[in-house]
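Quick one:
INPUT:
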């Protein structure tokens, strides 16, 4: 921990009020993790206990090693989707090997500075990421409301009333916890039959144990697990770093993204050695912890993992009685409060450039369509890059002026703007080759040469003039442009 984090933890431990917030937040998150972990186990095609133990090991490990306090990491749907084909084709042991290799990849990527790439993700991609997340969280609750006893609907409505209304009266206890306790008490007291956490799968009755994957340590095994491990590493890091940035914004604090990256890798290594399915940061549970419960330190993350283990191993019979309606209400609350409603207001859409709105909508559409946050972010960044390149390319202007007369006449072309592949491809057509006098000057003092495409374009222009017997001088190059042109001029086809 940094000195600031250490002081924050010590201050929390000394303050009953702050400590109560962290403890209750950890308890609420643990309750919310149980059905999620069970559901993700089903997606991955593994025993439900594997998902629960993965949530425990990820949360506890990242509470010590992560770079973003109060962020929750556990088994996630994105990772489950990646490893599901491997489990189906080769079994659980190969999955464990892939999780371990993914942890190694994440540590290596952290050491190589992958966290710095976060600066290249535009704000509108972040907005789309958050909005898509909120939509996915809401969509994930819909199956819990279809084909169920009618009592589920009033119970869910009561839960929504509590989570939205109680904070207006008091914030002494998390509204999410109150909703879970009240709805559970009602269903137990009235002996009503509604879907519960216990219906999602068998809860474990013992602790996880250390193990090594029972696979051949050979090149053939590496060929099988390598693509899955690499996908888990990238998906996990992307979701974790994006979540960390989101928590930074919510809490107005900064976090160590490089530490978070290798912390995720270490957490996956620990999870793999305990036979887990791997995971990464969970945005929904993190928002419950930070936004819904007000947690701010590593204590809540650690306790979420500990409470999860205690709840499923020691109090499994009690936890199994919790109605899914209560957890659905909590997750709908997270979805509604996480969505950036300001981003879709008519006034915002009118003010925002169309390209920015397109980036946000592309991120949302792809994420919801693929059910994969990493795919949505990747497409969003790609769309942003293309639209930016297109917009910048149109900023390049070429102005032609004539000086002198007869044999002394000179055509001066003043190029203004950034020259790269998108803008320099049209540069060739901006000159009057037939009409120009024997002397031509291309003034680049208001430009910058960025890439080989521009050098090749300048070579093509000077070559076309040379064939007509016209002398061309290129002036005004800054130092960086001179270096790139000297290195490649005349050497490109």
């Amino acid at each position: 921990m940094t000195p600031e984090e250490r002081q924050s933890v010590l201050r929390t431990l000394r303050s009953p009020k702050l400590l109560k917030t962290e403890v209750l937040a950890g308890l609420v998150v643990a309750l919310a993790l149980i059905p999620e972990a069970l559901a993700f186990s089903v997606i991955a095609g593994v025993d439900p206990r594997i998902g629960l133990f993965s949530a425990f090991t990820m949360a506890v490990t990242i509470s010590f090693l992560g770079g973003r306090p109060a962020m929750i990491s556990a088994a996630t749907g994105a990772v489950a989707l990646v490893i599901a084909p491997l489990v189906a084709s080769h079994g659980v042991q190969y999955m464990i090997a892939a999780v371990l290799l993914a942890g190694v990849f994440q540590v290596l990527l952290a050491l190589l500075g992958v966290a710095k790439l976060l600066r290249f993700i535009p704000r509108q991609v972040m907005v789309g990421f958050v909005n898509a997340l909120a939509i996915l969280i809401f969509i994930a609750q819909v199956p819990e409301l279809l084909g169920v006893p009618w009592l589920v609907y009033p119970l869910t409505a009561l839960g929504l009333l509590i989570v939205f209304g109680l904070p207006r009266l008091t914030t002494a206890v998390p509204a999410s916890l109150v909703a879970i306790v009240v709805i559970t008490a009602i269903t137990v007291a009235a002996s009503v039959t509604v879907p519960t956490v216990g219906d999602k799968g068998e809860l474990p009755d013992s602790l996880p144990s250390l193990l090594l994957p029972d696979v051949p340590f050979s090149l053939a095994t590496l060929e099988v697990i390598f693509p899955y491990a690499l996908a888990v590493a990238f998906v996990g890091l992307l979701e974790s770093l994006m979540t960390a940035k989101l928590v930074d914004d919510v809490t107005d604090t900064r976090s160590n993204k490089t530490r978070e990256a290798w912390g995720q890798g270490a957490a996956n290594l620990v999870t793999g050695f305990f036979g887990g399915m791997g995971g990464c940061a969970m945005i929904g549970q993190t928002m419950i912890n930070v936004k819904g419960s007000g947690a701010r330190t590593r204590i809540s993350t650690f306790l979420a993992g500990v409470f999860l283990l205690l709840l499923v191993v020691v109090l499994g019979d009690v936890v199994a009685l919790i109605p899914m309606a209560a957890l659905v209400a909590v997750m709908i609350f997270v979805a509604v409060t996480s969505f950036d409603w300001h981003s879709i207001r008519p006034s915002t859409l009118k003010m925002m450039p169309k390209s920015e709105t397109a980036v946000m909508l592309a991120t949302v559409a792809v994420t919801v369509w693929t059910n994969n946050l990493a795919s949505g972010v990747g497409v969003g960044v790609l769309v942003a890059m293309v639209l930016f390149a297109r917009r910048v390319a149109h900023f390049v202007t070429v102005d032609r002026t004539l000086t002198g007369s007869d044999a002394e006449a000179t055509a001066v072309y003043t190029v203004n703007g950034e020259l790269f592949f998108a803008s320099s491809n049209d540069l060739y057509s901006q000159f009057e080759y037939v009409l120009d006098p024997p002397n031509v000057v291309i003034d680049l003092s208001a430009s910058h040469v960025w890439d080989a495409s521009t050098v090749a374009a300048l070579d093509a222009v000077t070559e076309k003039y040379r064939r007509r017997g016209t002398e061309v001088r290129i002036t005004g190059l800054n130092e960086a442009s001179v270096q790139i042109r000297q290195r490649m001029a005349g050497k490109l086809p």
